[in-house]
């Protein structure tokens, strides 16, 4: 393809200009060029081929100049500017070679010759520019889109890591605080808590940007719930119900935990706490309900940093494929999250 573009195409381009001019000229005066002296025809075709090679070389240099001088992006002003430069340079080339050629052949230079020599090559230049630059602009557009996607993805990954980094200190504080108070009352229980805590921490140290089977998340939640029960009051009435159909569905990790942690943190009043997860069509539905103290401000549980981070992570990981609804009524707090799971 490069060989054709460099060595064959310019000759064909020059001959196309020549035969178009000859066709227009011969149609007007009723002449047939094959009846002319073939030495004269060969001379004219040789000049036209020379024009083709010089013209294509000139256009390529202009394209490189455009790309160095101005940003490669489509805009009407840029197209007009480039095209005017190209047409002007082409007219100079055509009149430098084809006009003298026409003056010394046949009956000399006529007005029709001048019109043909200036109009026909200009039309072909416009067509050539459109084809050549369209591919350049299209490639630049695709490259810019790819670069934008890369930058956007890097930004989102950075934001996800930042949200995760905000969450970890909160988790560590709660877990260590639980173990600290347990050590004074139950050494063996504290050891078991440390084991559970190590399991939780080990899970969080894995790459949390990849999806995992939902069963792993459920096992993680069960371990977390066991750890939280240690520091909870005996008044707590806990009900945990995970649908057995939840098994191999893929989800992003650590999305359920903020709702559970939030519920344990604010549970009060009648000390009811329900944690449920099930399959509904193509969604995993995770629902948490907890009673709250009557003296607790209504907005407290709904405005924590944990829930705000969760909403943002859902926006990043499941755009348009999730919902998170929270409500505070009748002495209780409810949160329901739906996400479309992967297979």
From TrEMBL:
TM regions (residue ranges): 7-25, 45-63, 83-103, 109-131
InterPro entries: Bact_2-comp_sensor_kinase (IPR050640), HATPase_C_sf (IPR036890), Sig_transdc_His_kin_internal (IPR010559)
Tagged with keyword Coiled coil: no
GO cellular component entries: membrane
Keywords, in A-Z order: Kinase, Membrane, Transferase, Transmembrane, Transmembrane helix
Signal transduction histidine kinase internal region domain mapped to chain residues: 158-236
Taxonomic superkingdom: Bacteria
The keyword Lipid biosynthesis is assigned to this record: no
GO MF term list: phosphorelay sensor kinase activity
Annotated protein name in UniProt: Histidine kinase
């Amino acid at each position: 393809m490069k060989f054709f573009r460099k060595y064959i195409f310019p000759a064909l381009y020059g001959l196309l200009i020549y035969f178009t001019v000859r066709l227009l000229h011969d149609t007007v005066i009723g002449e047939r060029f094959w009846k002319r002296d073939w030495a004269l025809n060969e001379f004219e075709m040789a000049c036209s081929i020379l024009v083709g090679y010089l013209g294509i070389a000139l256009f390529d240099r202009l394209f490189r100049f455009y790309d160095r001088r101005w940003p490669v992006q489509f805009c009407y002003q840029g197209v007009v500017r480039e095209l005017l430069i190209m047409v002007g340079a082409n007219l100079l080339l055509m009149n430098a070679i084809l006009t003298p050629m026409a003056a010394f052949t046949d009956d000399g230079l006529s007005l029709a010759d001048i019109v043909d020599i200036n109009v026909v090559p200009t039309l072909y230049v416009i067509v050539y520019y459109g084809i050549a630059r369209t591919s350049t602009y299209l490639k630049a557009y695709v490259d810019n889109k790819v670069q934008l996607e890369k930058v956007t993805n890097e930004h989102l990954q950075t934001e996800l890591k930042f949200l995760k980094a905000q969450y970890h200190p909160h988790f560590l504080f709660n877990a260590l605080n639980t173990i600290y108070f347990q050590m004074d009352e139950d050494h063996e229980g504290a050891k078991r808590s440390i084991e559970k805590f190590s399991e939780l921490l080990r899970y969080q140290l894995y790459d949390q940007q990849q999806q995992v089977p939902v069963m792993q998340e459920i096992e993680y939640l069960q371990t977390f719930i066991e750890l939280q029960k240690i520091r909870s009051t005996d008044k707590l009435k806990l009900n945990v119900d995970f649908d057995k159909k939840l098994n191999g569905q893929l989800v992003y990790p650590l999305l359920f935990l903020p709702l559970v942690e939030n519920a344990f943190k604010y549970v009060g009043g009648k000390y009811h706490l329900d944690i449920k997860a099930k399959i509904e069509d193509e969604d995993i539905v995770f629902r948490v309900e907890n009673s709250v103290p009557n003296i607790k401000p209504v907005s407290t549980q709904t405005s924590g940093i944990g829930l705000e981070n969760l909403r943002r992570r859902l926006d990043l990981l499941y755009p348009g494929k999730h919902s998170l609804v929270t409500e505070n009524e009748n002495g209780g707090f409810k949160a329901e999250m739906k996400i479309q799971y992967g297979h």
